Amino acid sequence: LGLDLEELEEIEEDAGLGNGGLGRLAACFLDSMATLGLAAYGYGIRYEFGIFNQKIVNGWQVEEADDWLRYGNPWEKARPEYMLPVHFYGRVKHTPDGVKWLDTQVVLAMPYDTPVPGYQNNTVNTMRLWSAKAPNDFKLHDFNVGGYIEAVLDRNLAENISRVLYPNDNFFEGKELRLKQEYFVVAATLQDIIRRFKSSKFGCRDPVRTCFETFPDKVAIQLNDTHPALAIPELMRILVDVEKVDWDKAWEITKKTCAYTNHTVLPEALERWPVSMFESLLPRHLEIIYAINQRHLDHVAALFPGDVDRLRRMSVIEEGDCKRINMAHLCVIGSHAVNGVARIHSEIVKQSVFKDFYELEPEKFQNKTNGITPRRWLLLCNPGLADTIVEKIGEGFLTDLSQLKKLLPLVDDEALIQDVAKVKQENKLKFSAFLEKEYKVKINPSSMFDVHVKRIHEYKRQLLNCLHIITLYNRIKKDPAKAFVPRTVMIGGKAAPGYHMAKMIIKLVTSIGSVVNHDPVVGDKLKVIFLENYRVSLAEKVIPAADLSQQISTAGTEASGTGNMKFMLNGALTIGTMDGANVEMAEEAGAENLFIFGMRVEDVEALDRKGYNAREYYDRLPELKQAVDQISSGFFSPKEPDCFRDVVNMLLNHDRFKVFADYEAYVACQAQVDQLYQNPREWTKKVIRNIACSGKFSSDRTITEYARDIWGVEPSDLQIPLPNLPR
C-alpha cells in the first residue's frame, strides 16, 4: 500500500492506563502468561482518560488530558452481551432467610476485550477492561416531575466511574470516586469469574453448580497491590448472602482463592479508607470486614493473651480521630499467599511492614522477583541487539532468557564486542535524530548517554542526580582545559499533579539545563535534557540508546524497580544503590560489573537511630555546599532567586530520603563510570556480561514461579495447533 510500517506505529496512541511500574508489570505479566500457555485473564478499568500527557512550559510541568480513544481503538471489542450490574449505597436488612442489600444505585459494567497473543505459540488470552454505563432508567424512577432532561444528563454521574485514571504513583489519596472505581472493577470481575465457573463443565457434578467446593481448584485471583482488596469481602458477600454458603466454608474458599502482591513499603502509599465512606457507599462490605476482623482478632488474642498492643497493630480497623480500614491488613488476612517483588523487599515485608502477620503465619510469605517481557523490551525495541544475539546463540533465548548465559564464554570475542558497540552507537544516533526532530535539541552522540527515567518522587532521588550534574558543571568551570568525559544527562518522568515537591524537581532539572546548555565554556562536554512526556513508547526509544542507567533510590524504598532490568537487557551499565532488584542484578552479573554505591538498608537504619543531620554533610563537603548554595541563591533561577527555597529547605531540614548522606559515594562512583567509559573495549565487555546475566529478569521466570508456588498450575511451552488445523 506504499505505507511505512514504522510511521504507522508512531501514530498509534499508548494505552496509558496505569501510573508506572505497577501497570507496566501487569502488561509484561499478560505477555508472559500467554507465552507460557496459561489460561489467564487480566482485568481492569477502561479509563476514558489515561495518565495525563506532560507538557513542559517555561520549565514547569503542565498536564493535559490523554484522550487516547479520540480516533478509536482497533484492538478492543465491546462485549455488551456480558454487561453486568454493580451496586452502590443502599441499606442492609437482616432477614430470617439471610442478609439483603437493598435500595442500591446500579451502574452497569460494559466489558471491552483486547486479545493478548503469546509469542509464536498460537495462544491468545484476553484482557477484559470494564467501562461504566448508566442503566436506561437511571434517575428516572425518582418521581422526577418533568425532570427528564436533568435525569438523562445525570447519567454522567454513573459514567464518571471509568472516566479518568488517578495519577498518583506510590501515594494514597482517599477520594470517594477512587473507592468507587476499586469496587466497580472488583464487583464486575467477580461476577464474570463466577459466571464462568458455574457454566464450566469442570465446575461440579451438581447440575446447577451451586457447589463452590472446587472453586479454589479452578480459580486463582491475584491481587495486584491493595487496589482490588475489595475482592475479599465481595467474594464473601456473594458466597454467604447470595449463594448461601456458611461463613466458615466461604472464608476457607476465599482464602484459598486469593493471593496478594505487595508493591510498596512507603507508609503514605498504603490504602487506609475512612470507615464513614464505607458506611454510605458499601454498607454490607463494611459489616463483612468487621466480621472478618473480629474472627481474626479472636484468633490472635487466643494465641497472645493479654497482648492488646498486638491486637491494635494487627487490626484491619485503625482507631483514631477518623476510623480507617487498612486494606493491606485485609489482604494479608484474606489471602493464602503474600509476596513481595524482589528478595530484599520481601525480607522488609516480613521484618517490618507485616512483622506481626509473619510471626503468625510465616508459611504464607513468599518472594517473586519482578521481571520484564523480552519480546517488548528486547526484540521489539532493540532489533539490532536481538539480531546480534541470535547470530551468536540462536533464538531460543526469546522464550527462555536464561539462555543468554551462552554469551558469557564469548565475552572476549572481538566480533561480538564490535557488534554490540556498533548496535549501541546506531541506537544513540537514531535517538539523537529523534530528539533533534521532536524537541529541536542537538546532542553529541559520542557522549555518554546518562539516563534517569521513572516517575518523579523524592524517594527515587532525582535530586541526587541534580547535585551530581551541578558538581560536574562546577568542575568544568573551575578547570575548562582539563580532559573531561562528555555526558548527555537525560532525566524524564511525570510528577503527580498534586505533588508540589516533584513538580519543583522538574523545574530544577529544566533550570539547570537552561544554564548548563547555554554556557559556552561547557560546550558539548555536558548537556542536560528533560525528556518530556515519558511513557512506554518513549521508553522503547531511549532505553536501547542508554549507556548508563541510574537506579539511585534510598536503600529500602524501591520495592523492585523494572526499568533497571530493561536497561540491563539493552546494554546499559547500572549505577545504583543496593535496593530493590538491583541487589539481585549485582548478584547475577557480579557486583564488579555494576557501579554500586551508597548506604545499605542496615546503614540507613543505623543513621535513623543516630539521627540524620544533613548540615553535617553540607558543612563537610565543599562541592556539595557549593551546589546547594547555587540552587539556593538563584544561580539557576536568576529571574526568581528564591524559586527553589522549598527544595533546599527540605534537603537541609527534613529529607526523609537522605540525599546528602549518599552524595560523596555517588560522586566518587560516577568518577569510576567516567574512567571506564574512556576504555570502550572494557566498557563493552562489562555490557556483554550484564546482558548475559540478565536472564533471571524475564517475566516468564516470574510467572512460572507464581504459577507453581501460588496458583497451582503448570506452564507449558507447547505450540497449540492453528485453529484451521485438526486438534
UniProtKB/TrEMBL annotation:
- GO cellular component term, pick one: cytoplasm
Q: What is its EC number?
A: 2.4.1.1
Its domain of life reads Eukaryota
Q: Which InterPro entries match?
A: Glycg_phsphrylas, Glyco_trans_35, Pyridoxal_P_attach_site
Which reaction is recorded as catalysed by this protein?
A: [(1->4)-alpha-D-glucosyl](n) + phosphate = [(1->4)-alpha-D-glucosyl](n-1) + alpha-D-glucose 1-phosphate
Indicate where the modification N6-(pyridoxal phosphate)lysine is found in the sequence: K566
- Enzyme class of the recorded protein, top EC level: transferase
Which BP terms does GO give this entry?
glycogen catabolic process
Q: Which cofactor does it need?
A: pyridoxal 5'-phosphate
Kindly list the GO molecular function terms attached to this UniProt entry: glycogen phosphorylase activity; pyridoxal phosphate binding
Listed A to Z, the keywords are: Acetylation, Allosteric enzyme, Carbohydrate metabolism, Glycogen metabolism, Glycosyltransferase, Phosphoprotein, Pyridoxal phosphate, Transferase
Task: Please name the NCBIfam families in this protein's record.
Answer: P_ylase (TIGR02093)
**Quaternary form?**
Homodimer. Dimers associate into a tetramer to form the enzymatically active phosphorylase A.
Identify this protein by name.
Answer: Alpha-1,4 glucan phosphorylase
